[in-house]
């Protein structure tokens, strides 16, 4: 595996920041945080850079690293085994053909951050992630 564990860890943390957010639960917000129970703290808004940061981090990777990131997702999800690493990377390259495939697949996968961490673990690599 050539993608640095630190790079995967950074993406895991960014994906988890998206996972904890909810849809717009207070569309008519105009009150202060004390009055509304701080409902806007964990909701996505138009000025929230988290998703664009994830998109930028993944898009900034080269083709091989994006393919390996997807391969980790497949292994973490149980679609493939660690022993099938080469096949997982080849499959990921096919799916990632236009460069936006990894971004879409990772952002649409529920708990993608956890799955990437499980993929690293299955590969015998331990990311240094803060415990929740």
What is the structure about, briefly put?
By secondary structure, the protein is mostly helical. The longest helix is centred in the first third of the chain and has 15 residues, at 5-19. The protein has helices at residues 5-19, 50-59, 63-77, 85-95, 101-108, 112-122.
Structure explained in plain terms:
The chain has six helices and no strands. The protein has 132 residues and is an all-alpha fold. 53% of the residues lie in helices and 0% in strands. The protein has helices at residues 5-19, 50-59, 63-77, 85-95, 101-108, 112-122. The longest helix has 15 residues, at 5-19.
Number of distinct beta strands:
0
Radius of gyration: 17 Å
Mean pLDDT: 80
Q: What structural class do helix, strand and pairing data support?
A: mainly alpha
**What best-fitting shape do the alpha-carbon axes yield?**
globular
Structure annotation, total helices: 6
Helix content: 40-55%
Strand percentage lies at under 5%
Separation of the first and last Cα atoms: 27 Å
Contiguous low-pLDDT stretches (5 residues minimum) are 42-47
Q: What is the chain-wise order of helices and strands?
A: HHHHHH
Biggest sheet statistics? none
């Amino acid at each position: 595996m050539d993608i640095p564990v630190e790079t995967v860890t950074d993406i895991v943390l960014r994906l988890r920041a998206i996972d904890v957010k909810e849809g717009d639960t207070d569309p008519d917000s105009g009150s202060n945080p004390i009055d509304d129970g701080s409902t806007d703290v964990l909701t996505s808004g138009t000025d929230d850079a988290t998703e664009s940061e994830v998109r930028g981090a993944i898009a900034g990777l080269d083709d091989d690293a994006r393919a390996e990131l997807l391969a980790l997702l497949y292994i973490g999800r149980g679609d493939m085994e660690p022993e099938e690493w080469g096949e997982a990377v080849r499959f990921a390259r096919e799916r990632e053909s236009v460069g936006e495939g990894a971004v879409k697949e990772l952002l649409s996968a529920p708990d993608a951050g956890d799955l990437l961490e499980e993929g690293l673990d299955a590969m015998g690599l331990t990311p240094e992630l803060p415990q929740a």
